[in-house]
Amino acid sequence: MVSRRHHFLPQCYLKGFSKPRKRGKTHHVVVFDRHGKQFTSNIVNIVVKHDFNRVEIEGTAPDVFEQKMAKFEGDLAPALNRILEARNLRNAEDRAILLNFIGLIAIRNPRHRESFRNFNEQVVKRMMELATDTKERWEGQMKQGREAGVLKETKTITYEEMRDFVKKNEYRIDLKTDFLIASEMKSFDAILPTLFNRKWVAFTPPTGSSAFYHV
Question: How many other CB atoms sit within 10 Å of the CB of residue 188?
Fold first, then answer.
């Protein structure tokens, strides 16, 4: 069975901020939402989004990317534990895993996706404004599309109808998850060298004090 509940922040990371319950079988954190509401939740039920990693590519399992992320998180969990135990970043392998994790969460989250979608929406809407600026331009665009085989023969929409639709601006441009993931991974490849080239220092609290990763 393919899971469709995908965490965009790994549970192994959230555990560091949690309090175990039922003899460690579940882990709970105090959550503050953007509206100021406070509540306690099992980490299974937060920072999770339906089909966040689902792909729709012919001949490919829809959860192939989710499985890849799960494999990475399998390496991340013990790396985080070793870093916390050592209280430093001297282990090169663990440091590399941590920096990959930082890069992933920086660009793979719903807020970043919405910003990217909104940017593309504004670009497309501006293109539609230009394409429907005159009747001659719109009919020229349609002719080119039909000749290129991009446009199928469907119900004819008049220029006036299309221009009215564009001017009302009552539509939304969505992007396929496949495209979003591909764009994110290109950005990830671009920022990762920068993360590795930085000089990182681990700050640890005095012995006996409450560490930042505890609630």
Answer: 16
Count CB neighbours of 168 within 10 A.
8
Cα–Cα distance, 200 to 92 (Å, whole number): 12
158-166: long-range contacts, CB 8 A cutoff, minimum separation 24: 159/132, 159/135, 162/132, 162/138, 163/132, 163/138, 166/125, 166/128, 166/129, 166/132
CA 188 from chain centre, in angstroms, equals: 11
Q: How far apart are CA 141 and CA 143, in angstroms?
A: 5
Comparing C-alpha atoms, which of 6, 100, 77 is closest to residue 47? 6
Q: Phi and psi for 112 in degrees, rounded to 5?
A: -65, -40
Enter the DSSP assignment of 27: E
Q: 87 in the Ramachandran plot: left (φ > 0), alpha (ψ -120 to 50) or beta?
A: left
DSSP assignments along 42-72, one per residue: EGGGSSEEETTT----TTS-TTHHHHHHHHH
pLDDT value of position 24: 76
pLDDT at 210 over 70: no
Cβ atoms of 91 and 82 closer than 8 Å = yes
pLDDT (tens digit per residue) in 85-131: 998 999 999 999 999 999 999 999 999 999 999 999 999 999 999 99
Question: What pLDDT score does 154 carry?
Answer: 65
Distance between CA atoms of residues 117 and 208, nearest Å:
46
